[in-house]
Amino acid sequence: MTRKIKLSDLEKILKNLQSSDAKSIDADTLLSEMESGKIGTGKSDEALLAAQLSKASKSLGCAMDDELEILAQSSLPMSRFDVKPFDLFSRPIQEVVLGASQKEGGSRQKTITIGGERTMPYFFDGKMPHPNCVTMDVFDMPVSLAKSVRENYDDVINDPAEWAKKVVRDFGADMVTIHLISTDPNIKDTSAKDAAKTVEDVLQAVDVPIVIGGSGNPKKDPEVLEKAAEAAEGERVLIASANLNMDYQRIGNAAKKYGHVILSWTQMDINAQKELNRKLMRQCGISPDSLVMDPTTAALGYGLDYAYSNMERIRMAGLSGDKELAQPLSSGTTNAWGAREAWMISSPMPDDSDWGDRKYRGPIWEIITGLSLALAGNDLFMMMHPKAVSTLKQMLNLLSNAQNSESVTKYDDESYDAWMTEVYDV
């Protein structure tokens, strides 16, 4: 007849073993765990007894049968490092496709999909559905750039089409952003028609998706972006951008009419972002799969702190069910160069610490800005320095456990690893 043994019986056995000459069992530890309540919360006597017998048998060098081992395992407390899926997030981020192939009415050799996340980036409970991507800046006229940036583009700075080719061919850009800054009435006041011709040249020069940016002039941009949208009809470009301080309806209507995606830009204000998104979708009829948000990126320091906090709030609100904020995010990461610490030779204050070589300092400034905002949920990065692009891609590929390394930049003069080694050796 099988004799049943209770947990209290095991306790007596263990107490007897404390004074016996039997093989060593850590009875003191087992008793301590039983008396302190560390073992026993919410478990059946059978499971708890199995757990204690398991420990005892292992101490004696005896094997346990499979059924007893399974029962013992069921009594183990959850480690403080064990995690469960975070069930607060109820809404996935909207997926948005940039670019259109020939089958889709465009001429791009590849398209880019952003969005689709179901949790915050690189979390244990959800893989990144699509890799982050980088669009590199190109301008329609020569511009003032930091020396460490300009030296990469001296040979193409007068030709936007060649500039676009170079960032794709040599620097691994996933996309190209053409900034039509010469259209500003305070600069060259280039006509919308001529700006559209520049857009056509860039589209012919590269086969990746493109972003079309204006000059930032609130009066001229709606006209320029409308004409550019018409010139790029069918290519599903990202029109950058619409904001509350300009005729966003004209820009939004043009994006919808010619089959493009609209960039909704606000200035670090989550409520303004909701308002603009709502107006673009309701007043202009922009569908959620054709809208990307840019809540503004500021340079390192307080600016980055605010940008990160705002972007993180937006992403978490979208994941938590706010349909007006459940859109992919874009960052003007190039704005990192707006901080004087990124490009000045040294501090203007004589007693300040050494800032280090600006050849590396500027790109690292851009890298840190991009990486920080990636952790806040950003999907698309607008960048300038080729080595900053390569390094950020390496980091994000590592974080997302990417198996495909084709997007990592390959340089003619030196590799990413060589450059990073040089930085660390300084």
UniProtKB/TrEMBL annotation:
GO terms (BP aspect): methanogenesis, from acetate; one-carbon metabolic process
Keyword Protein transport: no
Subunit structure: Heterodimer of delta and gamma chains. The ACDS complex is made up of alpha, epsilon, beta, gamma and delta chains with a probable stoichiometry of (alpha(2)epsilon(2))(4)-beta(8)-(gamma(1)delta(1))(8).
Function: Part of a complex that catalyzes the reversible cleavage of acetyl-CoA, allowing growth on acetate as sole source of carbon and energy. Probably maintains the overall quaternary structure of the ACDS complex.
PANTHER family noted in UniProt: ACETYL-COA DECARBONYLASE_SYNTHASE COMPLEX SUBUNIT DELTA, PTHR36214
Metabolic or biological pathway: One-carbon metabolism; methanogenesis from acetate
UniProt-listed InterPro entries: Ac-CoA_synth_d_su_TIM-brl, ACDS_complex_subunit, CO_DH/Ac-CoA_synth_dsu, Dihydropteroate_synth-like_sf
Name of the protein described by the UniProt record: Acetyl-CoA decarbonylase/synthase complex subunit delta
CO dehydrogenase/acetyl-CoA synthase delta subunit TIM barrel domain residues: 95-346
Pfam families membership: CdhD (PF03599)
Keywords per UniProt: Methanogenesis
Organism: Methanolapillus millepedarum
SUPFAM superfamilies: Dihydropteroate synthetase-like (SSF51717)
Family indicated by similarity: Belongs to the CdhD family.
